[in-house]
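Lab meeting minutes (informal)
Scribe: AK
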Amino acid sequence: MVRPTRGGCTSGYCRGMQDAPRWVCADKQLPSIHGAMAAVSNEIRTRAEGMGIDRTVLELVNLRCSQVNGCAFCLHLHTHLALRGGESPQRIAVLPAWRESDLFSNLEQAALTIAEAVTTVSERHLTEDEYDLLREDLTDEQIALLVYAASMINAFNRVSILSHHPVTYRESFGAPLKKDSHAS
């Protein structure tokens, strides 16, 4: 195995890390692929709105997958977006133990079940009984959309983890958007 060379990453994410190994920031090396992934995520958000799945549910999926994968960058980003979108700190705090809480709706619980199933697919698969339970709260189209949503955040987690995207301090972390600001 070739050891990484020292000298610091030259990407925008990794500036100031001269003493760290030079990590390849995959999204910066192949921006068109990253852009295509972002376009799929945007399509998922657009389709979700039309299916009765709001942005909060998608952010819960993003957070839960990122928790299981241990992606600090995505956890930081999606916690910020969830808080900014009105999600409660209490629900985010108990998300790792969501099954032991009454804080999540049936739809959210179904979405979280899918998030964990996609993220841990190499360890176990959903049973027929589990699928039947999902269908009590979701249409087949909603299930498919949530499978894609969880698959995309899992892909972004892997890119961020292997690119060593750092978490930086954000003064306005979780602050709601000002009325004249645009969502990012």
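Next up, CB showed the second protein from the same session:
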Amino acid sequence: MNEASEKGEQPKKTEPREEAFQKLFNWCSQLTAESSEEGEYLWPASMKKLLERLKLTKGALVGVLGLRGVGKSEAMRTLGFELSKIQDDVIYFKWAGGDLVDVVKTWDLFFDKRDSYLAERIEDMASNDPRFRDKLYKISETREGDDVGRLVYNLAARNWKHIETDDIKNRLDIFDHLIPAHVKKEVEREAAMDLLKDIKTILIDLPDYPKRDPRRIAADIAQVQKIWQSALEDEHNPNIVLFIQAETFATEDHFFFGKLLIYRIEPFKPEELIQHFKEQFGPDELITDDALSYVVKLSRGIFRRFKRFLGVCLEEYLVSGDRSKPIDREFVGNALTVDELFKEMDLELSELFKTEEMKENAVKIIRMLIKVREVQQRQLARVLNMSEGSVSKILIKLEDHGYCTKERQAIPEGGSRIIVRSTL
């Protein structure tokens, strides 16, 4: 019994505002598909369409493309969960590389299937290989009189009426040293391919590959292709869905990619993120609408980034000591420093610009734009000590990816100037 109870006092209740803060802070901390709660998923329009297709079709070969961090893993997990409600045989997993058997080995059903195949192979060897039978006789002599001795003897003598395949399967440890390594490998592959025949939908989340790693990409795609070819050869038509980093798909010219029906996970529109937030938390007194809109804008449509940025703001709010006022736009601007923003931008900029020099110059331009908000392109080049041509090339890519806008304005003296504005 605590002190408050001994004195007859009621336990202290959590204030509604504090409760709301804890709920929001916990939500912002769940950045991965694995840590998020079931049902708390913001469905992209393309994934709604894909879910309906997979419910109705078989034999579909699909590629789901998305930029790094856009939520491919979460989409795969949620699709798999929804499909498993109506289909018994759905598997979904993150590809860890290696051989196909290495992947299938992670499934619970694999080992039972493999052991059944090994037991059948041992029966075949006892039936057709005299040298194998000689080895069995020697084992039976050392175990005469017990169940193992009788099982091994009956195998060596081919007394099939006294042998059940399950008896062998349950005592595979006795035969392990007698089975050649190449036979074990063959059996594992057969079991893996046979297991795939029973699957109706296979969802595979490919890694976000390091830049310029064509060998690893080619090796993984070759293994995925084996799954597909095996399904075709056995006239088995599972749906196979690959979740692929959009940057990988754009740079790797693999013929297998050309066979995929493509669905794209696009960044969310600002109003979609705001609506989802309001549905989760209702009118929130912790953050103003203006501040929320600013966080959404800085997130550039990436749901995970939106949650992370909100989390950063809440951490700063927590240590500020003053929770009497809500988080406003000024607070967000102070909490989400330029360095904090660049933690998220670094990988994206690495994909946009081929050289470190171009990336570094892009960073300088973005920093400048965040600081001044609006500037002439010519002035930007002069201040950063870069040629206007170099600045123009970088700005084209930055504008295409939503970092800035450009506007050509006529000037009274004649001619025109280009005004560059930050969108961050």
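CB comment: The chain has four domains: 15-32+268-336, 45-89+199-264, 108-189, 362-422.
No objections, moving on.
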